[in-house]
Amino acid sequence: MTTRTSEVAWRPDRQIIAQANITRFMREHGIASYEELIRRSTADIEWFWDALPRALGIEWFTPYTRVMDTGPGIPWTEWYVGGTLNIAHNCLDRHAGGAAAD
User: Fold this and answer.
1) What are phi and psi of 84, to 5 degrees?
2) pLDDT tens digit sequence for 70-98
3) d(Cα 66, Cα 38) in Å, to the nearest integer?
4) Residue 62 carries which DSSP code?
5) Around Cβ 89, how many Cβ atoms within 10 Å?
6) Short-list 89, 18, 77, 91, CA closest to 45
């Protein structure tokens, strides 16, 4: 039997929070709280999904022309219309020659 608990297993300290990518993202966009981030990201979905790959430094081989196209209906939304990227490049290759490379 699985026991569910509402206890939080770990909470980051102030230094970790200050250095977190989500904190940097929020500062760059003038967002004061996590709750405000949730509100803004759900109220303006296109803004959020455009800002996020930029903040993450995603490299596109062909830039997208639209963040999303819901023309065929929400369940069939096309994301990053016209854009192409290589996930292996973004996850591995672009980091291979950096400071963390052996």
Assistant:
1) -130, 145
2) 999 999 999 999 999 998 888 888 778 75
3) 22
4) B
5) 14
6) 77
pTM (predicted TM-score): 0.77
d(CA 58, CA 50): 11
- Please name the residues in contact with 72: beta carbons below 8 A apart, sequence gap of 6 or more: 78
CA-closest candidate to residue 58, choices 79, 37, 32, 27: 79
20 secondary structure, DSSP code:
-
Q: Compute the distance between CA of residue 92 and CA of residue 88 in angstroms, rounded to an integer.
A: 6
CB 79 within 8 A of CB 60: no
Tokens of 44: 């303006």
pLDDT tens by residue, 11-62: 999 999 999 999 999 999 999 999 999 999 999 999 999 999 999 999 999 9
Phi, psi of 15 (to 5 degrees): -65, -45
For the record, the structure tokens of 37 come out as 């981030």
Residue 62, C-beta contacts closer than 8 angstroms, at least 6 positions apart:
82, 83, 84
